[in-house]
Design goal:
Helices cover 72% and strands 0% of the residues. The protein has three domains: 2-68; 87-136, Homeodomain-like (Arc Repressor Mutant, subunit A, Orthogonal Bundle); 146-277, Orthogonal Bundle (Tetracycline Repressor, domain 2). The radius of gyration is 45 Å and the shape is elongated. With 281 residues, it is an all-alpha fold. The model is unreliable at 1-26 (pLDDT under 50).
């Protein structure tokens, strides 16, 4: 190797000052020749160390990059983001909002509106009170949404019945059965157990408008039954109030853990009401 050769030359130089590059005496010229070779060896060593340094640096850099960048081919499927997209976020928000409403309506039905605090609702869901304000402005808004959901269930049944065939009494029977079942559910119970004055003025007005809409729909079915002779009544308005009052009151006395199911109670109550509406032969 070059460095070994230079070392040998240096040794020879130390024992004789007469050695030069041609093997003959040269005095100071030989020493200059040796010094030049020493410098060349140092330069070679420096360059080799530089090459080794950058080789190691390049290796370490590639290793670190492999932790950040995939080694999959460019045409591979893109990695799925750990963050949900807009549709997933909206669905998740809806699920959490519904969970808040379900917890709130159970507390409203068991304790009453005024005895229920948002702290109670938050604690039942293992969240903090500020979390609720992300979904609702206040307790009044939550209560209105609960009664709206209950009334909306009745409205959907009423609309389906109006579009169905059969006599007025047949359609009214189907409507009353669906109405009765809803009165055994949390949001239906909340409709009956919520007094108008517990809502704010704005919510109270909207609550009454929704109830009025359902009353008109039920009354229209009763009128159809009176017109086709399947319902024995001469006052559709009074008949509608009587039926609604009987069905709404189920929410007051129904016990989920009682001996009868919601469907059995609905069938029995509707059968009793229908017997009072059917024409006498």
């Amino acid at each position: 190797m070059a460095c070994s050769s230079v070392s040998s030359i240096a040794t020879i130089s130390g024992s004789s000052n007469q050695f030069d590059c041609n093997g003959s005496g040269g005095g100071s010229n030989g020493e200059i020749h040796i010094e030049t070779h020493v410098k060349a060896c140092r330069e070679i060593r420096r360059r080799r160390l530089t090459v080794i340094y950058f080789s190691v640096y390049d290796l370490l850099t590639r290793r670190n990059q492999s932790c950040l960048f995939t080694t999959e081919p460019m045409n591979a499927s893109p990695q799925k983001s750990p963050w949900p997209n807009a549709a997933d976020r909206e669905r998740e928000r809806g699920e959490k909002r519904n969970a808040l409403l379900s917890a709130a309506v159970r507390s409203f039905n068991e304790r009453g509106f005024h005895a229920t605090s948002l702290d109670d609702v938050a604690a039942s869901l293992n969240v903090t009170k500020p979390t609720i304000y992300y979904y609702f402005a206040n307790k009044d808004e939550i209560l209105f949404e609960c009664v709206r959901l209950g009334l909306d269930g009745i409205r959907q049944i009423a609309e389906a019945v109006e579009n169905a065939g059969g006599s007025g009494l047949d359609r009214l029977t189907a409507l009353m059965r669906g109405y009765a079942v809803i009165m055994t559910k949390d949001f239906g119970m909340c409709v009956t157990r919520t007094a108008d004055h517990e809502l704010s003025e704005e919510s109270r007005s909207r609550f009454r408008a929704l109830k009025r809409e359902i009353d008109i729909t039920v009354r229209r079915v009763v009128e159809d039954g009176i017109a086709d002779g399947s319902i024995a009544s001469d006052d559709a308005r009074l008949t509608t109030f009587t039926l609604a009052g009987a069905l709404n009151w189920i929410a007051r006395w129904y016990e989920p853990n009682g001996p009868l199911t919601a469907e059995q109670i609905a069938d029995s109550c509707v059968k009793t009401l229908v017997q009072g509406l059917a024409p006498r032969s």
